[in-house]
């Protein structure tokens, strides 16, 4: 289930406050931080973004 465009516009990375980008694949929906130094990937579970730094992963 994709996130609403209005919601995506106001969400920001909790670690660096950069905008988030929807990089959802069918099997692993996630939001990717656009910050150059941060670049954390936050999971989306049941259509709800989990914006906890402890739950985020660093993309390869």
Kindly describe this structure.
This is UPF0434 protein AVW11_34200. It comes from Streptomyces amritsarensis. It holds the Pfam family Trm112p. InterPro entries: Trm112-like. The protein is an alpha+beta fold. The protein has one domain. Helices cover 10% and strands 23% of the residues. It has 1 helix and 4 strands. The protein has one helix spanning 5-10, and strands at residues 20-22, 30-33, 41-45, 48-49. Strands 1-2-3-4 form a 4-stranded antiparallel beta sheet, with no helix packed on it. The longest helix is centred in the N-terminal third of the chain and has 6 residues, at 5-10. The N and C termini lie far apart (24 Å).
Mean pLDDT: 88
Morphology call: globular
Strand content: 15-25%
Radius of gyration: 10 Å
Would you tell me the structural class of the helices and strands? Answer: alpha+beta
Span from first to last CA?
Answer: 24 Å
Low-confidence stretches: none
- Following the backbone from N to C, one meets helices and strands in this order, namely HEEEE
> In this structure, how is the largest beta sheet organized?
4 strands, antiparallel
Give helix % range: 10-25%
Summed up, the domain count is 1
What topology, given as strand order, has the largest sheet?
A: 1-2-3-4
Total count of helical runs of at least 4 residues: 1
Number of strands: 4
Salient structural properties:
60 residues; alpha+beta; 4-stranded antiparallel sheet; 4 strands; 10% helix; globular
């Amino acid at each position: 289930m994709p996130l609403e465009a209005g919601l995506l516009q106001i969400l920001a990375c909790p670690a660096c406050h950069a905008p988030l980008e929807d990089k959802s694949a069918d099997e692993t929906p996630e939001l990717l931080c656009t910050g150059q130094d941060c670049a954390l990937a936050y999971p989306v579970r049941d259509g709800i973004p989990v914006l906890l730094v402890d739950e985020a992963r660093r993309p390869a």
